[in-house]
Automatic annotation (TrEMBL), chain A:
Record's keyword terms, sorted: Membrane, Transmembrane, Transmembrane helix
Native species: Litchfieldella anticariensis (strain DSM 16096 / CECT 5854 / CIP 108499 / LMG 22089 / FP35) (Halomonas anticariensis)
Classification lineage: Bacteria, Pseudomonadati, Pseudomonadota, Gammaproteobacteria, Oceanospirillales
Protein name: Uncharacterized protein
Membrane-spanning segments: 38-59
Top-rank taxon, per record: Bacteria
TrEMBL record, chain B:
Coiled coil: none
Organism listed in the record: Litchfieldella anticariensis (strain DSM 16096 / CECT 5854 / CIP 108499 / LMG 22089 / FP35)
InterPro entries for the chain: CheY-like_superfamily, Sig_transdc_resp-reg_receiver, WalR-like
Gene Ontology MF, one: transcription cis-regulatory region binding
UniProt keyword annotation of S-adenosyl-L-methionine present: no
Keywords annotated in UniProt: DNA-binding, Phosphoprotein, Transcription, Transcription regulation, Two-component regulatory system
PTM annotation (4-aspartylphosphate): residues: 52
Protein name per Swiss-Prot or TrEMBL: Chemotaxis protein CheY
Cross-referenced SUPFAM superfamilies: CheY-like
One CC-aspect GO term: protein-DNA complex
GO biological process, one term: regulation of DNA-templated transcription
Repeat among keywords: no
TrEMBL record, chain C:
Domain Histidine kinase, first and last residues per copy: 683-909
Taxonomic placement: Bacteria, Pseudomonadati, Pseudomonadota, Gammaproteobacteria, Oceanospirillales
Pfam families assigned to the protein according to its UniProt record, in alphabetical order: HATPase_c (PF02518), HisKA (PF00512)
Residue ranges crossing the lipid bilayer per the database entry: 6-24, 36-56, 68-87, 116-134, 167-186, 207-226, 246-269, 290-313, 338-368, 389-409, 415-441, 448-471
One CC-aspect GO term: membrane
PANTHER family: HISTIDINE KINASE 1 (PTHR43711:SF1), TWO-COMPONENT HISTIDINE KINASE (PTHR43711)
GO terms assigned for molecular function: phosphorelay sensor kinase activity; transmembrane transporter activity
UniProt main location, coarse: membrane
Protein name: histidine kinase
PROSITE patterns in alphabetical order: HIS_KIN (PS50109), NA_SOLUT_SYMP_3 (PS50283)
Organism: Litchfieldella anticariensis (strain DSM 16096 / CECT 5854 / CIP 108499 / LMG 22089 / FP35) (Halomonas anticariensis)
Topological relation to the membrane, as annotated: Multi-pass membrane protein
Length: 69, 123, 927
């Protein structure tokens, strides 16, 4: 048996990731720091890392191999 | 002359009972609620009590219970009066040690007879 | 130090190492101790996604176009997140049907269509070969940079001839490798364990090499990331380098690249190969779904720092694509550049190996074999063993594909930058997405729809990306780029239908996917599936839900002899024996073969030849309707019907449980009502008996005593009269209450002046209150108080309130204050007394029926002859006020300190019909 809400949680995570990676959510971070470089790459790497961490947690804890999705 | 204590919160009922008892030749004391009733018992040492159940404050049942708990009044004749026609109340009153139970409205003659009979029995 | 022999020695030494690893992996597999049976190896094999394009090109793209290169990796991140839905389904289908490639997958989905498989194989060949060329070019270029630094690399290919080009020899070595480890078995759906092990190893090498150069750049050439970014920030040219402005096409280009990478990750032939065909255990997918994105994140960590460093250290002539190499070279190192070269080599060779295997399988199974099967010379007539032929075809295909890639690189490789070819290939691969993904989830997609969709999308791809690329390379007249073909501006390839301002990839993606998916859906809606298509569509779309076992029922007849001959010819004797085990040895050649053996034979042939060819072959020996499609479909339908039926049953039982629950609570409510009714009857009887008792007692006294004094007689008669009045009032109240509760209370609402009504009510009770010694004070703060109400009923309420207040006012100097004032859109009438007041917890209970407020103090009931209330006045008053749209409640008396009852009625709207106003204000009856 898989955790009953695995599917819903995974869909939510995919939607979250898609939103985090695209405009308009990336626009607020497209600002230059005091020196002149944009924060955008830093934001992207952070968001990416968070999504991976959430996925790792979900896959390793919320999912059992025997079930179907 | 035997003394009868009439306890009821309806002034007109007290009035009628007072008249009836006086006419039957008893000395009558009255009370409008449970506390008063207990005080009258202590002061006046009545020979019989006509006790209404639904009284403001201490109910008739409480008065009955307290009197029966005191050995001095354990055998004092008490007639319960009630406007509730329910059997449960009658049984409760009898279980608590009432000598008789009269449902309102009552026949005046029957009530007087009951009082007389109980007083005779007690003597 | 960087001598040619050394570099070549290391490079070919590395390739030799790959051979060793692959051979080791294969031997372990034969011994049954697989080295690739782990989710980590699976993840590393997926990392074949990161090619030389990632290794060298990401830095170049970052230097030119800012952070947009990340989209190429965020897309696959999204795809891998969805892998428990999508890829798991594909793996399950591929396992059940022995799918060998993405062409086979799409062909099988649409009724094992041979033409569709051929089309997919052709598109892949055209679209992906340049990508292979790109890898070879990267090898040549990186070698040249390594050898010539600090001179510009200068591709001297044309002058020197191919034998001097190292990548030609690399390609040759790779061809040998792929033939050795990619075509060991005929069955292409068997895993290539040795090859996968080598690919996983290559993924580790390229990651290690890239991290090494990144760490060297950031921590040795600069003093950590802080120093690097501070110096980059002070460089005015780099101001916008990392912002969205540097991305071609801005926000649209951003999203376009993200979608492009997402789709391409699922449809690139090499990704399909490692994700689906080479998957050994579908449980590995869940680990890979986050571990692979992590790999991507790590390998991209240093891309931006290296790009910034490359620009900062100013190598004006340097190609950003080569920063990875030139940075350590400029620092005067020898070992690190060599490591980087090997890393790039590993990225390139990994991609070439897997892509070539995938393409060669497609080419041999879907382009060559179907042609050969049609040729009468090769078919059943001849008696030779064809299994060797099959392997031969695949090997030739491998060599041809690599040669084609090399030619592409040698002849036209200079025209594009690395990144450009990569994205053009991506866009070609995404043409498979509609047929693949819609086919997985929409049962109605038909073969014709998929074929036409693919053609349409591919045509748009050629027109919007390939031809303009040719034009820019100078092989075509590029006027049609600027002005459109035949001067038709709306047909300009980079601004189709006037869509301008988009980057070319998003532009092409949009139009080609629209054409592709649109045609697929549109045509599918108007075409019929044949029965095999229906079956396959059902098996594909239902792969996850109904745990279907693929057991096609063969109806047709064939003999053991015929089947054995067929299998022998295409698969060889050992494989044939495995398939036919279970058939009794003594079975004669003329005996009929059981259906499941025919099914097993078809699957085995499909693993070697692809499903379409396998089907053609089986049909050639089986007589009669080969496959009982009706039966398969009915199995499918029964399964889904059963599921549907179960679902309905479940829903029914849930509904039943709910109804039961409702019944139970309704029953409880009824019981509660019953109890309340009993209580009410008891209370009513008690209240009626009390006056009746006095009446009867005095009536009997008067009857039995004729000689009573006159004053006493009159007194007793007065009591009888008073108690009779009380009795009738009580009955009236009980009836009112009953009407209120049943909603049958008839009110006669009209517009009236509440102030006047108050004065009238006060007059009515004034005398009685005076007699009782109550001081009644009236304060009306408004001239007129128009409300809608029934005057009689409202007067009853006001009198009741005054009466109550009089009863509960203080024994000494009883005082009652009535106040009428306007409050917002309402009129408020409050009646205060100076009595004990009503405690917080009693304030709602006074509106309960027969609730009598306890009056403390000895004999208070008799003081001033105030009669006791029935306990019905306030509930009735509240009911009436509620019917008129108002409220009645208790609060603290602000002036007199006792209780205060407040009645609030809405102001009568000027000029509105009375009846309507009442309807609107009418509250539901209270229980």
């Amino acid at each position: 048996m898989k955790t009953p809400r695995f599917g819903e949680r995974l869909v939510a995570l995919i939607v979250l990731a898609a939103l985090l990676f695209s405009p308009p959510l990336i626009l607020p971070f497209d600002r230059t720091a005091n020196g002149g470089l944009s924060w955008l790459p830093l934001y992207l790497f952070l968001a990416w890392g968070i999504v991976i961490a959430l996925a790792a947690w979900l896959m390793e804890h919320g999912y059992d191999d025997q079930g179907g999705a | 002359m035997p003394r009868v204590l009439v306890v009821d919160d309806e002034p007109n009922i007290v009035l009628s009972l007072e008249f009836l008892m006086q006419q039957a030749g008893f000395d009558v004391v009255t009370a409008g609620d449970g506390e008063q009733a207990l005080a009258r018992v202590a002061e006046q040492a009545p020979d019989l009590i006509l006790l209404d159940i639904s009284l403001p404050g201490i109910s008739g049942f409480d008065v009955l219970e307290q009197l029966r708990a005191d050995p001095v009044h354990a055998r004092l004749p008490i007639i319960m009066l009630t406007a509730h026609g329910r059997e449960v109340e009658r049984e409760k009153g009898m279980a608590l040690g009432a000598d008789d139970y009269v449902t309102k409205p009552f026949s005046t003659q029957a009530l007087v007879d009951k009082v007389q009979a109980l007083l005779d029995e007690a003597r | 130090m960087r001598t040619d022999p050394l570099v070549l020695g290391v490079a070919f030494g590395y390739l030799a190492l790959l051979f060793v690893i692959a051979a080791w992996g294969d031997r372990r597999a034969e011994q049954g101790r697989s080295v690739i049976g782990s989710p980590t190896v699976y993840t590393l094999s997926i990392a074949v996604y990161c090619t030389a394009w990632t290794f060298y090109g990401s830095v170049g793209r970052a230097a030119e176009y800012g952070p947009s290169f990340l989209m190429i990796y965020l897309g696959p991140t999204l795809a891998m997140l969805a892998s428990p839905f999508v890829i798991r389904k594909m793996v399950r289908i591929a396992r059940a049907q022995r799918i060998t490639s993405i062409a086979d997958f799409i062909s099988a989905r649409y009724g094992k269509s041979g033409s569709l498989g051929a089309l997919v194989a052709l598109i892949a060949l055209i679209g992906i070969t340049p990508y292979i060329a790109l890898q070879l070019k990267a090898i040549t270029l990186s070698h040249a940079v390594l050898m010539n630094y600090p001179e510009p690399p200068g591709l001297r290919l044309v002058e020197e001839g191919f034998w001097a080009d190292k990548s030609f020899w690399v390609a040759l070595v790779l061809a040998v490798f792929i033939i050795l480890f990619g075509t060991r078995y005929l069955d292409a759906s068997e895993r290539h364990e040795g090859m996968v092990a080598a690919i996983a190893f290559e993924s580790l090498v390229k990651l290690f090499a890239f991290l090494a150069v990144g760490i060297f750049t950031v921590f040795v050439m600069f003093n950590g990331p802080g120093d690097l970014f501070a110096r980059a920030a002070s460089h005015p040219e780099l101001n916008d380098a990392l912002s969205l402005e540097a991305v071609p096409g801005g926000g649209i280009g951003w999203v376009g690249t993200l979608v492009l990478a997402f789709l391409a990750f699922l449809t690139l032939p090499r990704q399909f190969q490692v994700l689906v065909v080479e998957n050994v255990d579908e449980r590995h997918i869940k680990r890979a779904s986050w571990l692979f994105p992590l790999y991507l994140l790590v390998i991209n960590l240093f891309v931006i720092p290296i790009a910034l460093a490359g620009v900062l250290l100013g190598d004006p002539g340097g190609d950003p694509d080569s920063f990875v190499l030139t940075l350590p070279l400029s620092a005067g190192l020898d070992d690190l550049p060599l490591l980087v070269f090997i890393g790039g080599l590993s990225a390139a060779t990994g991609m070439v190996i897997v892509e070539t295997i995938a393409l060669s399988t497609m080419v041999s199974n879907h382009l060559v074999m179907p042609l050969l099967l049609r040729s009468p010379h090769l078919h059943l007539g001849s008696r030779g063993n064809l299994s060797g032929w099959l392997l031969g075809i695949r090997r030739v295909a491998i060599v041809m594909i690599l040669l084609l890639g090399y030619l592409y690189h040698a002849l036209i490789g200079d025209s594009y930058s690395l990144v450009t070819i990569g994205l053009v290939s991506f866009a070609a691969a995404t043409q498979f997405a509609p047929a693949l993904l819609l086919g997985l989830y929409w049962r109605g997609a038909t073969r014709l729809g998929a074929t036409l969709g693919l053609l349409a999308g591919f045509a748009v791809w050629i027109y919007t990306l390939l031809l303009p690329g040719f034009a820019q390379s100078g092989w075509l007249d590029d006027t049609f780029l600027q002005h459109g073909p035949f001067g038709l501006a709306w047909l300009r390839p980079y601004a189709l239908f006037g869509l301008e301002g988009w980057d070319i990839y998003s532009h092409s993606l949009l139009w080609s996917q629209l054409a592709n998916a649109g045609t697929l859906i549109g045509v599918s809606l108007f075409t019929q599936q044949n029965r095999l298509e229906q079956t396959q569509a059902a098996l594909f779309t239902g792969a996850l839900h109904t745990s279907l076992v693929y057991t096609p029922l063969w109806q047709g007849q064939t003999t053991r002899g015929e089947l054995e001959a067929l299998l022998n010819r295409y698969l060889g004797a050992p494989a044939t024996e495995r398939i036919l085990t279970g058939l009794a040895q003594q079975t004669s050649d003329d005996q009929a073969v059981p259906p499941e053996v025919i099914a097993r034979a078809e699957r085995a042939l499909a693993g070697a030849l692809g499903s379409a060819s396998a089907r053609v072959l089986i049909n050639s020996v089986v007589r009669g309707e080969a496959l009982d499609l009706e039966a398969v479909l009915s199995i499918l339908d029964t399964t889904s019907q059963t599921l549907e039926y179960n679902r309905q049953l479940e829903q029914k039982s849930r509904e039943l449980a709910k109804v039961g629950e409702e019944l139970r609570s309704a029953n409880e409510r009824l019981r509660e009502l019953d109890r309340l009714k009993d209580e009410f009857v008891a209370m009513v009887s008690h209240e009626l008996r009390t006056p009746l008792t006095s009446i009867r007692a005095f009536a009997e006294i008067l009857r039995d005593n004729h000689d009573l004094p006159d004053d006493k007689r009159r007194h007793f008669l007065d009591v009888v009269v008073l108690e009779s009045q009380r009795l009738s009032r009580l009955i009236e109240e009980i009836l009112d209450l009953a009407r209120l509760e049943s909603g049958r209370l008839t009110l006669h609402p009209q517009r009236l002046d509440l102030a006047a009504l108050v004065r009238q009510s006060v007059d009515a009770v004034h005398r009685v209150q005076e007699e009782r010694g109550v001081m009644l004070e009236v304060a009306i703060d408004t001239d007129e108080a128009p409300v809608i109400g029934d005057p009689d009923r409202l007067e009853q309420v006001i009198i009741n309130l005054l009466d109550n207040a009089g009863k509960f006012a203080a024994d000494e100097n009883p005082h009652v204050l009535l106040r009428l004032e306007r409050h917002k859109q309402h009129y408020r009438l409050s009646v205060e007394d100076n009595g004990h007041g009503i405690g917080e917890d009693e304030r709602e209970r006074v509106f309960e029926k027969f609730h009598q407020i306890q009056q403390y103090g000895a004999g208070s009931g008799q003081v001033r002859g105030r009669p006791r209330g029935s306990g019905l006045g306030l509930p009735i008053s509240r009911g009436i006020v509620a019917h008129l749209g108002g409220r009645l409640w208790v609060e603290n008396a602000s002036t007199l300190g006792g209780a205060c009852l407040v009645m609030e009625l809405p102001m009568a709207p000027a000029g509105i019909e009375v009846q309507e106003a009442v309807k609107k204000n009418k509250a539901p009856p209270e229980r």
